[in-house]
Amino acid sequence: MYRNIGTTAQPSFTLITKDYADLSTVLSGSIISAVPAPGDIDNDGDVDLFVITNGNALSWYENTGGAGNPCNFSIYKFNFFSINFPSSDPVPQLFDYDKDGKLDLMVATKNGKVYYYRNNGTVSAPSFTLATGSFPNVSLKGDFFVYGLDGFGAPYFYNEGPQTKLLGGCITGQIYLWDVPSISTNSCTLIDSTANGILEPTYSTPWYEDINGDGKPDLFIGNSGGGVSFYSSKAPDVSVKDNFVNENSVRVYPNPATDVVMIESAEGFVSIKEIELTNMLGQKIKFEKVNKHMCELQMADVPEGIYFIRITQQLNEQTFITTKKIIKR
Question: Helices marked H in 167-317 — which ranges?
């Protein structure tokens, strides 16, 4: 748990505990993984917590604190719904997909698919049933020849007016964006496979919520290195579709690389300000400050593998960030 000790417009987080709600003492066995999903599942005005532990057991932490009070997770219901997920490593989200006033359970799994468990219970007593198979046409996977069969999807559904949308993270670090129909058996429409040009380190996990009080959602993305990236709705490099910057705004070559990588702005009047090289775990390998439209990055001392180059460009005092994947051989 990281508490926000900042202001409404300027959030700032500090670590409170690494064992929120005493999860380690509640579980009888060891914790290999724990993936939480918050939501007022029993409609009593406070936020409860669903947690999937060790890749299979969906448990319910009931918040008995009451509306407007500090959370009090005093009732722990282990594997309460006895759900057998279609694939391993499920990542949950509580979201009212069918808009009936009850939170449904949305789950992405290791196979890169996303499933919809409809809440067939009441507003105060949830009960979940797999509505259909996975959402048609949705696949949170990367290149088979690089990442294999697995996708390790992570979903975030949200409403944009009457339209439901899905932000999906996966093993590659990219963020997918889909239009989701109101009928779960109809095909979803892919809007973008690298939404906003974002490419994080592996196992990207998105969360989309207004954190700075400006009425527009901000984007958080976790990754396998343990870090969290924050894309603010107030930042100039967010929602830049109308500007010149796109996935072709900077060239990185040769790829695969051996000793040297050339980095070049597609437009000569755009300066490259910073270059950061990270590995698949999100660990920083190199960082350089530059101030020109073309530069080179020495790779001779970098082990073979897959890396990400995060390139910061500047135009008329606006900063734009592009991430490129590169293979070192």
Answer: none
Give the per-residue pLDDT at 268: 64
Tens digit of pLDDT for each residue in 10-50? 888 888 998 888 888 877 667 788 899 999 999 999 999 99
Nearest C-alpha neighbor of 123 from the set 143, 147, 103, 95: 103
Tell me the pTM: 0.72
The beta-carbon contacts of 203-207 under 8 Å, at least 24 apart in sequence, are: 203/152, 203/154, 203/169, 203/170, 203/171, 203/173, 204/154, 204/169, 204/170, 204/172, 204/173, 204/174, 204/175, 205/91, 205/154, 205/169, 206/154, 206/156, 206/167, 206/168, 206/169, 206/175, 207/156
The angle formed by the CA atoms of residues 30, 220 and 235, to the nearest 5 degrees, is 160
252 and 327 in contact (C-beta within 8 Å)?
A: no
Name the helix (H) or strand (E) containing 26. helix 23-26
